[in-house]
Amino acid sequence: MPMASSSVNVDGQKETIPPVKTHNYFSSLWADMSFSFDKQVQEGYAEAIETVKEEVRIMVMAKDSKPKDKMMLIDTLERLGLAYHFEQEIEHQIERIFKFHAQDDNDL
């Protein structure tokens, strides 16, 4: 790529400004990609997400799991940022665990 120089007249004298070298930058990796938001694909993802959410809801509400395991599951959901999907179920389970342990302490 040829570089053009330019001239500037300063105090009656002509000075030549050297050309600025231009760089050949790589084009963006995203420029040629086209994203397809096929409605059927999106609906399939939404359905799969709802299925997994229901499985997790069943795990949270399971009555046969130990309180320690239940609290570890709740902690994991909190750490993953997913607990907001199960707020009512988590609150219910924590109340159950608290009442169980409060009742257990009264028996002593």
From TrEMBL:
Alphabetical list of Gene3D superfamilies matching this protein: Farnesyl Diphosphate Synthase, Terpene synthase, N-terminal domain
What is the species of this protein? Buddleja alternifolia
Q: Which residues form the Terpene synthase N-terminal domain?
A: 37-104
MF terms from GO for this chain are: terpene synthase activity
Q: Which InterPro entries match?
A: Isoprenoid_synthase_dom_sf, Terpene_synth_N, Terpene_synth_N_sf, Terpenoid_cyclase/PrenylTrfase
Source taxon at top rank: Eukaryota
Q: What is this protein called?
A: Terpene synthase N-terminal domain-containing protein
SUPFAM superfamilies recorded for this chain?
A: Terpenoid cyclases/Protein prenyltransferases
